[in-house]
């Protein structure tokens, strides 16, 4: 998935329905409000609530720096 993909404009977090941010190079989508990271497997975002993982405070800071606008 690339930052220009129009799909990124319509994807939303399954928990709070807010926008997600692409985090390269991990190929993940991140919700900074809930501090949850959702993987992208073979180009397909895994957006089931159970697929997301909670990140630590340190990981949150790193992910904020990597997020694409």
In short:
With 69 residues, this protein is of the alpha+beta class. It contains two helices and five strands; from the N terminus they run H-E-E-E-E-E-H. The longest helix has 10 residues, at 57-66.
Index terms:
69 residues; alpha+beta; 5 strands; 5-stranded antiparallel sheet
Would you give an account of this structure?
This protein has 69 residues and is α+β, with helices and mostly antiparallel strands. It is built from two helices and five strands; from the N terminus they run αβββββα. The longest helix has 10 residues, at 57-66. It starts with 6 loop residues before the first helix and ends with a helix. The mean pLDDT is 91.
Number of helices: 2
As a percent range, the share of helical residues equals 10-25%
End-to-end Cα distance, whole Å, is 15 Å
- SSE pattern: HEEEEEH
Strand percentage: 15-25%
Mean pLDDT rating: 91
Biggest sheet features: 5 strands, antiparallel
- Shape assignment: globular
Rg from C-alpha positions? 11 Å
Structure class: alpha+beta
Poorly predicted residue ranges: none
State the total count of DSSP E strands: 5
């Amino acid at each position: 998935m690339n930052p220009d993909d129009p799909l990124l404009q319509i994807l939303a977090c399954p928990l709070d329905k807010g926008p997600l941010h692409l985090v390269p190079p991990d190929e993940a989508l991140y919700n900074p409000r809930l501090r949850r990271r959702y993987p992208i497997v073979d180009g397909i975002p895994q957006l089931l609530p159970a697929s997301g993982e909670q990140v630590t405070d340190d990981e949150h800071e790193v992910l904020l720096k990597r997020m694409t606008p």
